[in-house]
Design goal:
Blueprint (H helix, E strand, L loop, with lengths): L2 H24 L6 H10 L6 E10 L4 E9 L14 H10 L1 H8 L1 E2 L9 H9 L8 E6 L5 E8 L8 H8 L9
Antiparallel strand pairs: 1-2, 1-5, 2-3, 4-5
Helix pairs in contact: 1-2
């Protein structure tokens, strides 16, 4: 990637990330807000994740819960922005097969059992159709942990890896129902 391409990609990534807080506020209180944010973060103009599953680990309630899942192969079939037609996107995501599988996952807390998120990811990767996945985790409020499993659009693309965990903190502003 040349210097011009790198600058253009950085600009595009930054532009997408700085718009997200405004978009989050637009849909504040929407039960499916994490799916909107995950959709934006996984977009090819952002972190280019072809498949991503978001989980919350709550040791107090001894629970790991699947919150949202995006599989870009199950393309949302409209040219309109998901933020312009949130009801339509929410309806689509309610029945999207990958999202449904992720949201159905509920198991005992890794944190409470002193297990790593990687152990859980390994046990569910095949069920979710992950072939070559990565894992990232970050602390959430109320002593919870968030973590994602993901596959990149291009395995060799490491351009934005250092920024991914920081950007995932945006999911911390989304309510979990």
């Amino acid at each position: 990637m040349g210097a011009h391409d790198t600058l253009l990609r950085q600009h595009t990534l930054l532009s997408n990330l700085v718009q997200l807080p405004h978009k989050i506020i637009q849909l504040h209180g929407n039960e499916y807000l994490p799916e909107f944010v995950l959709h934006e973060l996984s977009h090819e103009n952002c972190f280019d994740l072809s498949k991503v599953a978001y989980f919350v680990d709550n040791a107090d309630f001894n629970c790991v819960k699947g919150v949202a899942g995006i599989d870009r192969a199950q393309h949302y079939g409209t040219s309109a922005s998901i933020w312009d037609e949130p009801h339509a996107y929410t309806e689509y995501m309610r029945s999207a097969p990958f999202n449904t599988m992720v949201r159905a996952i509920q198991t005992c807390s890794n944190k409470r059992q002193a297990r790593s998120h990687g152990e859980l990811a390994e046990s569910i990767a095949q069920d979710l159709g992950f072939d070559n996945h990565g894992i990232r985790s970050w602390p959430l409020k109320h002593d919870n942990d968030g973590f994602i499993m993901y596959e990149k659009g291009s395995i060799t693309d490491t351009f934005a890896d250092d920024y991914l965990v920081k950007a995932l903190h945006l999911l911390s502003f989304c309510p979990i129902f």
